[in-house]
Amino acid sequence: NNFKNKYDSLNPIKVIKFENFLYSIDSKAKFSIFDIEDGKLVDKIHLFNNKNNNLIIPTSFSRYKDKFIIGFKSGIIILINKQGEIIWETDFKKILSTPLAINENDIIFLLEDSISSISINDGSLNWSEVYEGSNLLQYSGGLLKIFNNIIYYILPNSSFGEYDLLFRSKNLSNFSDMNFKSSINYSNNKIHLFDNYLVYFDGSNSLSTYDIFHDKIILSDFNVENLSSFYFYNNALITIKNNKLKSYNILNGNLFWNINIEEKLLKKSKIINIFGYDQNIYIFFDNGKIIMINQNNIINKFDLKIKNINLLYFQNNYLFASL
Q1: Is residue 110 within 8 Å of residue 98, measured between CB atoms?
Q2: For residues 219 and 251, is the Cβ–Cβ distance under 8 A?
Q3: Could you give the 3-state DSSP secondary structure of residue 14?
Q4: CA–CA distance from 20 to each of 39, 41, 74, 125, 293 (Å)?
Q5: Is 298 in a helix, a strand, or coil?
Q6: What is the pTM of this model?
Q7: What is the distance, to the nearest Å, from the Cα of residue 21 to the centroid of all Cα atoms in its chain?
Q8: Which residues contact 87 (CB under 8 A, 6 or more apart)?
Q9: Which pLDDT does position 53 carry in this prediction?
Q10: Which tens digits make up the pLDDT trace of 97-130?
């Protein structure tokens, strides 16, 4: 990945499985290809040979059909083929920390003070909107969700808004009435989309929910008890604090369940992912522990025997963990 422990302000990047190979990009913009069967390195390509290493730290890595789109912290975005050959390159010369979003044939991205769209075909600019905001930026990036033809976003400079992809113009709704905390002071804030509900959590103790269909805020600044870690899963906000594991209903703030857990299991641990399978919920922690919940009870525990995990995800029935 992009070595998150070395670049603390970056989000870890996923390895991509495509056909019979694994594709990855590292912190020095080296594009690597591995055989999925034996894990052996097939090829490694240096995407840039004449650029400053500080300009080519990757912040986003996505697949589009049989090609890959890579965003870099300096504002460079490129499209490459499976052989690592650059098809096009564009440079916006502003900080790009938020992962890119692909919508049909367009790439949507947040720079420090703007939201923009470029064509996947050639990298040409489709549209861009600039917002004045704080001079202090959240270097882990902004937040972005797409529902039908509307983009909802919070920029790294703490500005927020909506954009209508159909009419290519700013959109206005009661979403803007939500109490978005400054991303500088709330660096763990998140936006979550479930059905027609858009949820904002400041990462500390304030939860709000916006009903898109009815253009109405149905939960405003609901107080969540102090926590050490949280994760959204469907219509729930899952939190941990000391030996308490709680599940809050994002629509009304009520508790789905409140479970006591052995303190040693959760001590200094964070939730890194949650999966549901066969009516069970599997909660993964960064210390490698897994708990399985069914009907508000812990029915099993597992241990991956891996610690200090910063990213964990499933892809084509494979489990990937990044340290």
Answers
A1: yes
A2: yes
A3: coil
A4: 11, 13, 32, 34, 34
A5: strand
A6: 0.90
A7: 24
A8: 67, 78, 79, 80, 81
A9: 65
A10: 999 999 999 999 999 999 999 999 999 999 999 9
